[in-house]
Structure to design on (317 residues):
C-alpha cells in the first residue's frame, strides 16, 4: 500500500502567510506557533471540517521539520490487519508473500511528521502498539531484528474532545497523556463570526492559487449574507464553496444566486430538494446527535462505517 496522501490542503508557499488573528482563532494560532516551535507531540480536535488537517500541516510547515516528510494516515479507513504491516513495515521473508523489504509509514516519516487522522478510530490494540513507539522512540519492522531509532513528531486528530474520548473508552488514557502535551481545540465556524472574514480571505487566496486563476470578487453585502450561514460543514464547506466560485467566476463578481440557502428561508422551505441534499442534511443531524461518533452514526444510518466516510467526503462534511 502506498503512503497515504498528504493533507497538504494548501500550497507550501502559503503556509507562512497564514494569519487569522480575530476571535477564538487568535489564541489558537498563538498556541499553534508555540507547538511548532516546541517540536513536540500534540492532539488537535474539533468538529468535522474545522481545519484539523490544515493545522496539523501548519504545525509541520512552521517547524524545523518543514523540509522533512509529512505523512497523514486516515485511521478510519485502515483495517486492523493492515496496521502492523503498513505502520511498521517488514523485511523480506517476514511472512508468506513478503518478497521484498517494505518501509512502513514510521520509517517513511522519519525526520518529519506523522499524523493520525481520526486517531480514536484505531482499535485499542492498535493504539497500544502505537503507544510503545511514541514512548520508546524506536521500533522493529515485522520479521526484523534490528531496532530503528525514530526522529518523528506524532500528531493525533480527533473530532471529539480527547478527555471525553478517554472517558468513553475509545482512546487509551496512556496514549492520550503521551500525545496531549499540547491539546488544541478548534472552534466551529458558526462560533467564530469575528474570524470569518479571515477564513474567507484565506480560502480565496488558497483556491485561486491552487487553480492558478484570478480571485473572484465578493461584494460587501454578499459577504455579510454569507457570514449568516450556519456552515454545518465548517471551514471545509466554505472551502468547497470558494473552490466553485474560483472556477466559475475568476476575476469576476460572484452573483447573489451563489449564496447558500438560509435555514428557514421561504425559498428553501418551499422548493423540492434533491435526494443528495436530504441525505447530506440527515447525515449532519445524526453526526451532531451522536457527538461525532462515526461508528454509532453509521449504525443509526444503517450503513457501513467506510460508506459513511465516503459520504462525508462526498458532501464535504
Amino acid at each position: 500500500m502506498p503512503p497515504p496522501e498528504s493533507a497538504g490542503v494548501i500550497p507550501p508557499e502559503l503556509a507562512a502567510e497564514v494569519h487569522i488573528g480575530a476571535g477564538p482563532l487568535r489564541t489558537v494560532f498563538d498556541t499553534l506557533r508555540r507547538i511548532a516551535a516546541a517540536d513536540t507531540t500534540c492532539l488537535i480536535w474539533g468538529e468535522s471540517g474545522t481545519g484539523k488537517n490544515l493545522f496539523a500541516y501548519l504545525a509541520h510547515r512552521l517547524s524545523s521539520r518543514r523540509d522533512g516528510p509529512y505523512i497523514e494516515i486516515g485511521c478510519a479507513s485502515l483495517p486492523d490487519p493492515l496496521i502492523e504491516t503498513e505502520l511498521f513495515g517488514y523485511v523480506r521473508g517476514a511472512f508468506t508473500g513478503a518478497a521484498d523489504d517494505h518501509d512502513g509509514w514510521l520509517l517513511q516519516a522519519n525526520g518529519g511528521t506523522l499524523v493520525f487522522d481520526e486517531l480514536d478510530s484505531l482499535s485499542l490494540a492498535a493504539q497500544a502498539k502505537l503507544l510503545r513507539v511514541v514512548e520508546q522512540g524506536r521500533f522493529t519492522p515485522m520479521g526484523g531484528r534490528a531496532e530503528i531509532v525514530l526522529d518523528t513528531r506524532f500528531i493525533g486528530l480527533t473530532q471529539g474532545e480527547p478527555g471525553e474520548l478517554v472517558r468513553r473508552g475509545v482512546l487509551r488514557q496512556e496514549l492520550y497523556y503521551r500525545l496531549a502535551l499540547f491539546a488544541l481545540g478548534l472552534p466551529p465556524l458558526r462560533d467564530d463570526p469575528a474570524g470569518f472574514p479571515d477564513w474567507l480571505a484565506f480560502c480565496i487566496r488558497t483556491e485561486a492559487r491552487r487553480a492558478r486563476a484570478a480571485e473572484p470578487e465578493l461584494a460587501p453585502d454578499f459577504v455579510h449574507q454569507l457570514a449568516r450561514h450556519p456552515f454545518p460543514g465548517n471551514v471545509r464547506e466554505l472551502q468547497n464553496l470558494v473552490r466553485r466560485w474560483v472556477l466559475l467566476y475568476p476575476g469576476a463578481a460572484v452573483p447573489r444566486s451563489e449564496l447558500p440557502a438560509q435555514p428557514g428561508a421561504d425559498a428553501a422551505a418551499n422548493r423540492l430538494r434533491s435526494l443528495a441534499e436530504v441525505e447530506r442534511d440527515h447525515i449532519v443531524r445524526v453526526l451532531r446527535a451522536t457527538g461525532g461518533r462515526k461508528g454509532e452514526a453509521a449504525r443509526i444510518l444503517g450503513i457501513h462505517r467506510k460508506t459513511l466516510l465516503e459520504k462525508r467526503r462526498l458532501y464535504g462534511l
Q: What stands out?
A: Confidence is low (pLDDT under 50) at residues 1-17.
